[in-house]
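Appendix B, record 7
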Amino acid sequence: MKGKIWTISNVLSLSRIVLMIPASYFLYAPMKFHREIAVLIILMAIITDALDGFFARKFNEISDLGKIIDPLADKIGVGIVVVMLTIFGDIPLWFTVIVLARDGIIFLAGMYIKKKTAIILPSLLSGKIAVTFLAFTLVLAVLKYNFIDPLYNILIWVTIGILLYSFVTYAIRFISTLKKYSSQ
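Structure tokens (predicted):
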């Protein structure tokens, strides 16, 4: 892996994984305002996601490790939250299956590209947008306020569309990368 390991951006990415511990606890904890506290922690994770890329570019800390742990932290955080919300009955199973399958395929395809070409492909803008919409959809699902149900019901379908669009953009890039390196 090229570049430093303990950079501000990598620490922020790792902190997203660590933040899932208290977020999970408060999602489950039988106490007053537990879901609101979980949302605050999830929002902190969303903020670190925005900041890690900013600091990586600002301080020229873009590294191969960062290209792995940033999206991996997203996938771990999303995976934990969607599984818990599915268990609690707050989001439908089909939604969780789509989210986990998309993330798993993209991650495994990225590892395959790394093995075949020695290149670690960075996240695409479509993936970042998809994760942002997904995060806000999950925040609404965690809160479970009746007055936001109409927004949640719209947002879940918009999120599915954006997730599928981003999946296609990743698939196109993976295929073109493999073609480029297989012809060399």
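Remarks on this record: Residues 149-182 form the longest helix (34 residues). The helical segments are 8-28, 34-58, 64-87, 93-117, 125-143, 149-182.
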